[in-house]
Amino acid sequence: MRTAIIIGAGISGLTAAVYLQRSGIQTLVLEKAAGPGGVSTSWKRKGYTFEGGIHWLIGAKKEIPLHQVWLETGALQENNPVHFKDPIYTLVDEKGTMPMFRDLHGLEITGFRDRLALWRLRFHLACFKHFHQPIGDLRGLKVRYPKSFSVWEYVKMLSAVLVTPFLMAQSARAYAGWFKNPRIRALLAAVVEPDINALSFIYTLGTFNVGDSGYPKGGSLHMAQNMASTFLNCGGIIRYQTPAEKIFLEGKQWSVRTKNEVLTADVVIVSADARSAIDTLFEEPLQDGWAKKMRSGLRTTQCMFLGVGVRADLSSWPRSMQIVLPRQLKAAGRTYKTIVVNNYVTEEGYAPEGCSVITCLLHGPTYAYWKSAKEDGSYAAKKNKVMADFIEAISEMIPEIKNAVAVTDMATPLTYERYCSTFEGSYMTDWPPFRRLYHAPVRYREGLYFTGQRTAYSGGLPPAAQSGRTTAQTVCKDLGEEFVGA
Ligand SMILES: Cc1cc2nc3c(=O)[nH]c(=O)nc-3n(C[C@H](O)[C@H](O)[C@H](O)COP(=O)(O)OP(=O)(O)OC[C@H]3O[C@@H](n4cnc5c(N)ncnc54)[C@H](O)[C@@H]3O)c2cc1C
After folding, report:
1. Is the CB of 318 under 6 A from ligand 1?
2. Does residue 371 sit in the same domain as residue 389?
3. Dihedral (CA of 325, 326, 329, 335) sign
4. Of 404, 423, 442, which closes a domain?
5. 191 within a domain of the structure (yes/no)
6. Is the C-beta atom of 428 inside 6 A of ligand 1?
7. How far is the CA of 11 from the centre of ligand 1 (A)?
8. How many alpha carbons lie under 13 Å from residue 83 in its C-beta half-sphere?
9. Per-residue pLDDT at 330 exceeds 90
10. Are residues 416 and 461 in the same domain?
11. Could you tell me the distance, in angstroms and rounded to a whole number, from the CA of residue 37 to the centre of ligand 1?
C-alpha cells in the first residue's frame, strides 16, 4: 500500500487526507495543535463559545459545485445544517439601523447617484451569478466518480470574466464610493476588507446574492471535527501535538522529522502555511524562483480577534452588525471607526441561558506591533487595553454589554503564529488592486507537494478545500492510483 504524510490538519490538509485515504493511500496527518481545523476553529471559555473562524461558508448551497467537496469530505453532514442568514449585515449607527438583505433590499436609496450605483452593483452581481470555482478532474487521472465542468458552465461564466479587469483595478472601498449615502458605503465595507480588490467584494457579495454562503451549526470546530472523523473512519491516522520539525530527502524518499522520530512515506504534503514553510520546514530555506517571489511579493491578511461573553440577552440586536462607533477605537496603533460585530445569541449552546456572545475582527497589519510588545514585555497590558477600549466603545452602541461582561478573549497575529505557524500570524493572502498573488506549486519535487490557501487564489475556505482536492488528485495521478472521491 502506498503511504502519505500530511503536515497540518487545517481544512486543506484534512481535505487532501480524506481523498487520499479513500483512494487507498495510507495517510498519516501530523498536526502541531491539539485539535483539527487550523485557523478555522472555535473554542470555549467559561461556558461561552468563541467562533474564531467561519463567518460564511461558500459552497453551503447544494447547487454550488464546491458543495460536493464539503459533502465528500464530511465537512457538512446532517449534524451541522447550514443557516443562511438574511439580512446579511445590518448597519448600526446613531441614526438607527439599516439592513442589507441578500437581494440588496433594505438599502436606503435616495437620489439619482445612489440609484445608478445600485444599478451598477446589481449589474456586476448578475455578471457573477453563474461564477463558481469549477470542481473537475485532472486530465489523465483515473477517477472512480468523475466530475466535469461542462463547456456550457464555462460559457455562463464569461460575463464575470469580461468585467473582472475593471473590478480588479479598484479597491472595494473605491467601488462602494460610487454610493453617495455614507451609511450605504459604511454597510458595504462589512462584506470584505475595504482595501482588497473589488473583484473579491463582488464575488463574495455574489455568493450571498445567489443564496449561498451560510453558517453551519456548531461552526468551525464542529465542521473540522466532522472532517477529521470522516478521515479516521476511512482508516487514516492523525497525530495531534506532533509538529513536523524538518522535511528532508533521505536517499530518494522524503522524510519528516518530529521531536521523537523520523517518518518516511511515498509522498509528503505540506499543508502548513507555505510562506512559513519555505523558511522554516526545510534544512535550508528554499531558494527556488517561486519561493523568492513569495518572500518578496506576498502580503498577508492579519486580524485581531475579540470575543466577549455577555450576561445579557442580546436577541433584540441583529446577527451581523456593521457598527459605526461614535468615537474612533484605537487598537495596536490603528484606528477603527466602523467595526463588524457578530452576535451569536441565536446559536444553540454558544452561551448559558439568557446570555450571549459577540465577536469582532479588527483587520490590519499589526504583527510587528504585537511582536515588539512581546519583546518589551507590554503584550498582556496592551491586549487588556484593546479589550477594555473595545468594550467601552461597543457599550455606547449596545448598552446591555456595559456591566454584563462575563468573559473575554483576544487573539493577535502572534496567537495565530503560535498555534498555527502562519506567516505573520495571517489567515489569508491579501489581494489589493493591481497586485499579483504568489503561489507555491502543488508538486514541488517528486514525492513532495504543497497544498493549502497559499497554493491557490486568495479566499479562505474554498481555496483551502479546492487545493486539498487538487493536491490529492495530483498525488493519485503521480502514483498511478485511482482517485476515489465519494
Ligand atoms: C478569524 C477568521 C475568520 C475567517 N473567516 C472566514 C470565513 O468566514 N470564510 C472563509 O472562507 N474563510 C475564513 N477564514 C479563512 C480560512 O479559515 C482560512 O483561509 C483557511 O482555513 C486556511 O486553511 P489552510 O488549511 O490552508 O491553512 P491552516 O488553517 O493554516 O492549516 C495549516 C495547519 O498546519 C498546522 N501546522 C503548521 N505548521 C505545522 C508543523 N510544523 N507541523 C504540524 N502541523 C503544522 C497548523 O497548526 C494548521 O492546523 C477566516 C480565518 C480567520 C482566522
Report:
1. no
2. yes
3. positive
4. 423
5. yes
6. yes
7. 7
8. 15
9. yes
10. no
11. 7
Ligand 1 center from residue 416 Cα (angstroms): 9
Mean pLDDT over 49-69 rounds to: 96
- Ligand 1 atom nearest to CA at 428: 19
Sequence-ordered list of residues with C-beta below 8 angstroms from that of 158, at least 6 positions apart, any chain: none
> What's the number of domains the chain is made of?
3
| Residue 357 located in a structural domain | yes
Residues 472 and 362 in one domain: no
Cβ–ligand 1 contact at 30 (below 6 Å): yes
Q: Tell me what the mean pLDDT of segment 231-238 comes to.
A: 98
The pLDDT of residue 463 is: 95
Give the pLDDT confidence of 77-111 residue by residue, as tens digits. Answer: 999 999 999 999 999 999 999 999 999 999 999 99
Counting from 1 in the atom list of ligand 1, the atom nearest the Cα of 420 is 47
**pLDDT of residue 172 exceeding 90:** yes
271 Cβ below 6 A of ligand 1 = yes
Q: Are residues 455 and 382 in the same domain?
A: no
Q: Which atom of ligand 1 is nearest to the CA of 30?
A: 43
The answer on 267 and 291 residing in a single domain is: yes
Does 385 or 437 have the greater pLDDT score? Answer: 385
pTM of the complete model beyond 0.90:
yes
Q: What is the reported pLDDT for 34? A: 97
Domain of residue 276 covers 3-35+59-69+217-299+434-479
Q: How many CA atoms lie within 13 A of 137 on its CB side?
A: 17
Q: Based on the domain organization, do 234 and 247 belong to the same domain?
A: yes
Q: Residue 64: which residues within 8 A CB-CB, separation 6 or more? A: 58, 132, 207, 210, 212
CATH of the domain at 255: 3.50.50.60
Determine the distance separating the centroid of ligand 1 and the alpha carbon of 427, expressed in angstroms: 6
Distances in Å between the Cα of 467 and the Cα atoms of 10, 217, 384, 452, 484 are 12, 24, 38, 6, 16
Pocket test for ligand 1, best of 220, 237, 271 (most atoms within 8 A of CB): 271
What residue owns the CA closest to ligand 1's atom 46?
420
Q: Strand, coil or helix: what is 15?
A: helix
Residue 345 lies in a domain: yes
What kind and span of H or E run contains 444? Answer: strand 443-445
Question: Is the distance from the beta carbon of residue 40 to the nearest atom of ligand 1 less than 6 Å?
Answer: yes
What percent of the chain shows pLDDT beyond 90? 94
**Does residue 49 form part of some domain?**
no
In sign, the C-alpha dihedral spanning 425, 427, 433, 436 is: positive
222 vs 217: CA distance, rounded Å:
8
pLDDT (0 to 100) of residue 189: 96
